[in-house]
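Annex B. Sample input.
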Amino acid sequence: MTRGLSALLIVMAVSEARGQEAPPPIIDVHLHAQSATSQGPPPLALCLPMTGWPAVQRGASWPARFMEAQKEPDCPDPIWSPESDVELLERTLEIMERRNVIGITSGSQLQVWQGRAPDRIIPGILFNGGPGSPSVDALRAQFAEGQVRVLSEVTIQYRGLEPGDPSFEPYLALAEELDIPVGIHIGTGPPGAPYLGFSMYRARLHSPLILEEVLIKHPNLRLYVMHAGWPMLDDLLALLWAHPQVHVGVGVINWGLPRAEFHRYLRRIVEAGFGKRVMFGSDQMVWPEALEFAIQSVETAPFLSEDQKRDILYHNAARFLGLSDDEIANHHEGR
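Annex B, continued. Sample output.
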């Protein structure tokens, strides 16, 4: 009996015993457990659906204009970030429980979130390779003890580094050795990132092709491209064609871009034949309702069949992560 079939039989038996079914599970491969102040002084506004960012005038300050857009939003009904860590956690968990979401989660509040909802959190690690990052030996110990299950999110792009940088190589070797999934930020950060304190951030590092030599050197690496390398679609398709082990996460682009643009991007990936390698992610930071919007961005895609939606929202990630029959059954049960 295959693992998928045995898991399905377990789910059916559990559902029959309970007399009701939980909502279909969703795996979010890009969730953050951060402080409410991590993106700036709360509350911060977010306009959804997003239709664009303001232009900065010559000689004006982009950081000031960026913050102004979040304090005085140009939309009639923005969502606002919570003002406390407790509220951020509770609002996010309400959506996760109602929608049956399990999240690969990283950030400064990870242990707090795990303590509150251990069955909904798959622990990751926010890794930028800078001061304060764990050593290879320390990370090995965290994996061995189950403190971390996924090396994600890797944000070395913000430091101007490619995944093949020598400083990151030992971590990739460790992940391949221990069969640890790796999620690397390849693609969009905040608009105007080099002027928001990330002076080494470069747009050319959006290209997924910067992963190619890493993949050749580590052919057994379980790696997913966060943000789907937007907007470098042709580069992404070339990488997926040449390297069948690579998967894609669609976090942030499913709410940080106009929905029409996200749908165009996703449609091309799916129509090129890579629908089985696309995984849902939200990149939810301090706006819990962005998670709901991100889910809806997949559910409302008119070019996706119901089976394709379920693949993106759950099945592809379950396979990529190598979840056990028991984990899959628990997810379908709603825990």
